[in-house]
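Bit of a strange request maybe. I'm writing a small parser for C-alpha cell strings and I need a real example to test against, not something I typed by hand. Could someone generate the C-alpha cells for this chain?
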Amino acid sequence: MEGVDIFTGVIAPYINLAIFLVLATWMLKGPIRNALAAKRNAYEDLVRKASAAKEEAEKRNLELKERLVQLDREVEEIRIKAQAQAEQEARQVVASAESLAEHLKREARRIAEAEVAAAKVELQRDIIEQVKLQTIEQLRANLDDNRQHQVVQQGLNTLGAVRSIGSHEQDAEVLPHPSVVQNQTKSPVRAEVNS
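Reply from user aminoacidic:
Good idea to test on real output. This should exercise your parser:
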C-alpha cells in the first residue's frame, strides 16, 4: 500500500460521505419532517375518520337492532291483529252460513208444505174423480129405469114427509116434483149416468 495515500484513499471518501449525509440531512430535514408530518396527519385523519365511521357504524348497528326488535313487535302485533280479524271473519262467515242454512230450511219447509198441500188437493181430486167414475159405473151397472123411479119416489116421499111434519098436517098429500112428472120416461139420474 505504498502507492495509496491513506488519507485521500481511505479517509477522505468517508469524510465526504459524512459531510454529504450531514448536509443532506440538514437540507432535507425540513421537507422530510414536513413529509413525515403530512403522512402522520394523513394517518391521524384516517384514524379519526375510521373512528368516526366505526362510531357511526355502531350507532347504525344499534339503530338497526332497535328497528329489528321494533319490527319483531310490529310483526307480532300484525300477526295478532290478522289472527283476530281472521277469527272475526270466520265467525261472520259461520253466522252468515247458519243464517243462510236457517233460511234455506224455512224455505224448504215452506216449499214442502206447499207441495204436500198441492199433493193433498191433487189426491182429493183424484179420489173424487175415482169415486165419481166408480159410482157412475156402479149406477150404470145396477140401476135400470124401474129402480131409478123407485129411488126418486123414495126421495120425494122423504121430502114430502119432511114437509108434512113441518106444516103439522097429518094428511098432507105428497106431490111429485114437476121435473119427475115430465121426465118419467127418462130420469135425471139416468141422464147423468148416460152422460
